[in-house]
Structure formats: structure tokens, C-alpha cells
Model the fold of this input.
Amino acid sequence: MIGYLQGRLAAKRPPWLTLEVGGVGYELEAPMSTFYQLPSVGASLKLVTHLLVREDAHVLYGFSSEPERRLFRDLLRISGVGARIALGILSGMSVDGFYRCVRDKDLLSLTRVPGVGRKTAERLLLEMADRLPEGAEAVQVAAGGASGVEGEAQDALTALGYRPSEVVKMLKGLAREHASTEDLIREALKRAHRSA
Done:
């Protein structure tokens, strides 16, 4: 798995860009939300990535932030939503905007995204509802609001299958007491098992 690439932006032609890393030009596909933040050609750039392996191709996707990549991966897990629709959603609205649409059951805003019809929008609202955080504090987690040790712990717990709303409860008040990511995760898991 390629976690990120850091190098020189060699070309950008939406939805494709080329990032030169150590003499090798990596061609990546990216949403418009990432393109809006790209520097000029020739500048240094770091992108988090997702490699999608299909029968006919290996496609590398690049994102300017971890919350964008996380949402892209969550969208790919939904039946009937492929990379093209996931990129369309990220190109048509912000990560926060998407979470708001799902939380508010805003079908109309989702159907305005190219490639997202009514049935797909209904499926997104239904299947993403249990992955959404509850309350303002949890929305910040889902949108990647925390950073450092707490952010790493949130990502790890989410990867273990906990919902963002559960992660908020598990980590509440622990970040001040624990300096390392491992300690924070360990204590959060202990807290979860005690309350189970």
C-alpha cells in the first residue's frame, strides 16, 4: 500500500496530476477539492494516497488531506458507489458538507452531485447514517478535526471498526493524560470494554 507521496508537481490536468518522486512520475487521479489546493507546477507537494486495484488497472488516487481520503474509502464500501461517484462527491462538496447532508438527510444536495441519482443518494443517506458522528464534538472527529496523538488514535480506532460517535466517547478526556498514541488507544479500548 502506498500511504503518501511527496515530490514535485510535474503536471496537473483535472482529474489527473503527475507527481515526480525520486525520478519517477506517479500519475494520480484526484478530486477537485484537492486540485483547488494544488501549488503551481514545479512546486513541492505531499499527497495522501489510495491505491485501487481493479481487474484492468491499478489506479492511484491522491488527496490533499486525510479526511478526504477517509471519506473516499468509506464511500467505496457502499454498494453501487465506485471511485467515479466518490470522486464526484468530493469534487462537489466538502467533507464537512457531505457529513452535514447525511446528518440532515439532505437528499436534494446529494442529487445535485454529478453521477448521484436519487437511488444512490438514498443509499448514501441510509448506509452512511450509522457511520456519522453525533453532536458537534463528534463531527469534528469525523472531519479530521483532531491532530497529533489524538488524531492518530481516532484513525486507529475507526480502522478497528468503531463508529466515530463511539470513538469520541472512548477518547473523551484521555488525551491530556496520555502522551503516546499507543497508550491512548490502550486506555480507550479498556474504557470501551469496561462499559460493554
